[in-house]
Design brief:
By secondary structure, the protein is mainly alpha-helical. It is built from ten helices and two strands. The chain has one domain: Rhopdopsin 7-helix transmembrane proteins. Helix 1 runs parallel beside helix 9.
């Protein structure tokens, strides 16, 4: 592996590990306090890093075999479960922001995703090059269809997340308002970072994604220490 491939692999791995860690922290609140939104959002946030799972795993494998994952395995790991995680995110946002029409957005997305998954699995086993191919041991070129699906999923994530963040920003309660600010930063940095990562893979875009994961944790959970710092609160005795 050359320096760029090593850097991309390490940055992908860092992002995935942080996303998993943040997701587990959110899930921990479900076991502490209940509330299915913690469960759905925790799992969904872990899953939103799925497009970077194969580059992280392929980087680790390439350390030993110099070639990384086989193309079909790379494609499967990076795409197959994404629809499920987006549906979980949409269900969580539906509960939090009240779409008005029960389950309609998750249902429509699920139907479209089922068609996509059939297409994906057919070509994965018949001619995976239609879906994409590896570009070195760490990264891959996805087909326009796969990129389009990822962008649609990203758009749904961004729109629903922004609506939720705006509701928080409108709150007169300082704590909720602060959470909305962190969420807004997280959504913007994740979306921009993802789009640029599709166009041009680089450590800079992966750094933006890492920042988004940290900001999302601050926005969704808001640890007491962060709350005290930004709201100038005195620590409890």
């Amino acid at each position: 592996m050359n320096l760029i491939e090593i850097t991309n692999g390490i940055s992908s791995l860092i992002f995935v590990v942080i996303c998993i860690f943040v997701g587990i922290l959110i899930l921990n609140n479900y076991f502490k306090f209940g509330g299915k939104d913690f469960l759905l959002v925790g799992i969904a946030w872990i899953g939103l890093s799925e497009p970077w799972w194969p580059s992280s795993l392929s980087f680790i494998v390439a350390i030993f075999n110099e070639t990384g994952l086989a193309d079909p395995i790379y494609l499967f790991i990076g795409i197959f479960f994404l629809p499920l995680f987006i549906v979980l995110w949409l269900l969580a946002m539906e509960d939090l922001i009240h779409f008005g029409t029960k389950h309609i957005i998750p249902i429509i997305f699920s139907i479209g995703s089922l068609i996509f998954e059939i297409y994906f699995m057919f070509y994965l086993f018949s001619d995976y090059t239609v879906l994409g191919n590896m570009e070195g041991p760490v990264d891959a070129n996805f087909s326009p269809i796969l990129i389009l699906y990822q962008l649609i999923a990203l758009l749904l994530f961004f729109i629903t997340g922004v609506v939720f963040a705006i509701q928080s920003l409108k709150s007169s309660e300082p704590r909720i308002n602060l959470k909305g600010k962190f969420l807004f930063i997280a959504l913007i940095s994740f979306t921009v970072g993802t789009i640029f990562d599709i166009i041009m893979t680089s450590p800079i875009t992966r750094t933006m994604l890492v920042i988004s994961a940290i900001m999302f944790y601050f926005g969704y959970i808001l640890p007491p220490g962060i709350q005290r710092i930004f709201l100038n609160e005195l620590p409890e005795n």
